[in-house]
Structures are given as C-alpha cells and as structure tokens.
Amino acid sequence: MGGRSPILVGLVLVMVLGCAIYFRLWTIDYTISSDETEILRRQFDLANREAMDESAEWRLKYDEEVERATKCLNELIKVKESSEKKVEDAASTNQKLAMLQKENMALLERVESLKQELEAEKLKCSLQ
Asked: What keywords were assigned to this record (predicted)?
C-alpha cells in the first residue's frame, strides 16, 4: 500500500485540477455573437475543405506512384521472363550445336571411309 498512495494522491490531484479547469471553462461568459460563430463556422468549413483538397491531392499522388510502381514491376517481370527464355533458348541452341557437331564428325568419318573404299575400288579396277 505504501507504493500506491503517492500514485493515488497524484491521481486525485489531477482529477481535482481537471474538474477545476472544466468548471472554469464552463463559467466563462459566452459573449461570442452569432456573427462571430458564423465566421468561425465558415473558417472551419474552409479549413476542412482545404484539408480535404490536400488529402485528395496526396491520394492522387499515391495512386499515381502505385500505378508507376506496378508498371515498372510488370516491365521487370517481362524482362526477367524474356531473359529466362533467352537463357533456355541458348541452352537448347548449345545442345543442338553439340548434337550437330557430333553428327558432322560422324559424317566426316563416314565420308573418309567412303573415300578409302572408293580408292580401294579404283585400285582394284586399275589392277584388273
């Protein structure tokens, strides 16, 4: 209880001060005329409209930035996809090139063996 009593005293003191301020404000003589209230209302409405306009401007800027960011993201995705496709195409092209080189080597060996057979046949024909 020893630690709570200063807190309770402080809380009661704040409540008493709050009530005193409230009653002081309540007892103020309201000498504001109806014209002054109308001027205050107009000023408040003007400030409110300006705040709404500024809010709309910021919302428009936000929407434009979101649109630009989305457009950039879509372009980035397209570039990435085309890059991946080019890599895949390059890989398949390399595979085709390797296969064609092997086939070319086999054909060169076959041409060489056919040349040897032809030479052998020519040699046989010339000997007979």
From this structure: Coiled coil, Membrane, Transmembrane, Transmembrane helix
Confidence at 23, pLDDT banded by 50, 70, 90: confident
Map residue 7 onto helix, strand or coil. Answer: helix
**CA 65-66-72 angle, 5° bins:** 90
Look up residue 28 and give its DSSP letter.
S
Q: Cα torsion for 30, 34, 37, 42, to the nearest 10°?
A: 180
Secondary structure of residue 33 in the 3-state scheme: coil
Give me the percent of the chain exceeding a pLDDT of 70. 90
Q: How many residues does the chain have?
A: 128
Name the strand (E) or helix (H) holding 128.
none
Distance, CA of 43 to CA of 87 (rounded, Å): 65
| Nearest Cα residue to 35 out of 43, 25, 27 | 43
- Tokens at residue 118, please? 């032809």
φ/ψ of residue 66, rounded to 5: -65, -40
Residue keyed to tokens 């076959």 = 110
Q: What is the mean pLDDT of the chain?
A: 86
